[in-house]
Design a protein that fits this description.
With 136 residues, the chain is an alpha+beta fold. The protein has a five-stranded antiparallel beta sheet. It has four helices and five strands. The longest helix is centred in the middle third of the chain and has 14 residues.
Length: 136
């Protein structure tokens, strides 16, 4: 069995989306959790399904907080992932399983940018904007 040091030395760098990239993706994993401030967060493992980066995957989180404007943006982002996740959907106060079920397999375009990370400047923060796919 290989040692951890052997595995670590041969590990490949993780793929990162490009700054200003736009990717058509599908949600392959969804995790609903809680922030350190006890607000909900939703993490999506996204797989690129078209173009030269097809098959690559990256993680994106959507956070909620005490900031009403930021929460409005978070709800709009999730509605872009699944248009059924509108105000009426959230008014029913779905549980974690229902949220995960609604997002799993959702397809959308994702536009990526990066912000400075004050804690670790070598690892900028990935910021994703979800864009609904045109059904026409």
């Amino acid at each position: 069995m290989p040692s951890f040091s052997e595995l670590s030395s041969s590990a490949e760098e993780r793929w990162q989306p490009e700054e200003g990239g736009e990717y058509t993706t599908v949600v392959v994993e969804c995790r609903v959790g809680e922030t350190s401030n006890e607000y909900p967060k939703i993490g999506l493992w996204l797989e690129v399904i078209t173009g030269e980066d097809s098959g690559e995957r990256f993680w994106d989180n959507t956070y909620f907080s005490a900031n009403g404007r930021a929460n409005n943006m978070a709800f709009a982002k999730l509605a872009a992932a699944n248009p059924k996740m509108d105000t009426a959907y959230w008014d029913k106060d779905p549980d974690e399983v229902e949220i995960e079920r609604a997002l799993m397999g959702s397809k959308m375009k994702v536009r990526t940018t990066y912000d400075e990370n004050d804690r670790d400047p070598s690892r900028p923060w990935l910021r994703c904007t979800y864009i609904p796919l045109d059904d026409s």
